[in-house]
Design a protein that fits this description.
The protein has about 170 residues and is mostly helical. It contains eight helices and no strands. It is globular. The N and C termini lie far apart (about 65 Å).
């Protein structure tokens, strides 16, 4: 690359080949934001997922997951916001967004199954999974923390309180 000025087209081509398509870059950014490390980590290998599965009571499972969501949402919300805004003009990005949403929904069903094994649920498992899916969305984090000025800790407490009250039977 030249020391000053814009890169030449051949250099851009090499850069583009190294990075890949926008959708691949977006997926990589999302995966690293979720994992919190420089590479994607499958859900079942993440520390918080293993801690949730090891916890014996529902309250502990909820607290572990809420703490993880506080950290993940803080990293993920800005990335997903950009993807959402670009998705209408970029079909590949829209597909990535849809895949992420579906994967999140599937992961919520797994979490609810684990939660239900530890304590009776107040609502049907499908409804519980949808409630968690909606309330742990990075968009809600962005609304409450970025726009309304909540602290990440307050957001985490909100998740624990909401999930405990709505999901667990008395």
């Amino acid at each position: 690359m030249p020391l000053c000025g814009r890169p030449r087209p051949a250099q851009l081509g090499l850069y583009g080949a190294a990075v890949g398509r926008k959708s691949e870059l977006a997926r990589l950014l999302v995966e690293t934001a979720i994992s919190g490390v420089s590479q994607a980590v499958p859900a079942e290998e993440r520390d918080y997922v293993q801690a949730i599965r090891a916890a014996s009571d529902a309250d502990a499972k909820i607290a572990i997951y809420a703490a993880a969501m506080r950290d993940i949402a803080g990293r993920l919300a800005p990335v997903l916001s950009i993807i959402q805004q670009a998705a209408p003009a970029e079909p590949d990005l829209a597909a990535v967004w849809h895949q992420i949403a579906e994967r999140r929904a599937a992961n919520m069903r797994l979490f609810v199954a684990d939660l239900a094994a530890a304590a009776p649920l107040r609502v049907h498992p499908d409804a519980a999974a949808d409630i968690i899916w909606a309330t742990n969305a990075p968009e809600l984090y962005q609304l409450l923390v970025s726009q309304r000025g909540w602290s990440p800790g307050r957001y985490e407490h909100f998740l624990v309180d909401t999930w405990t009250r709505l999901l667990l039977a008395d």
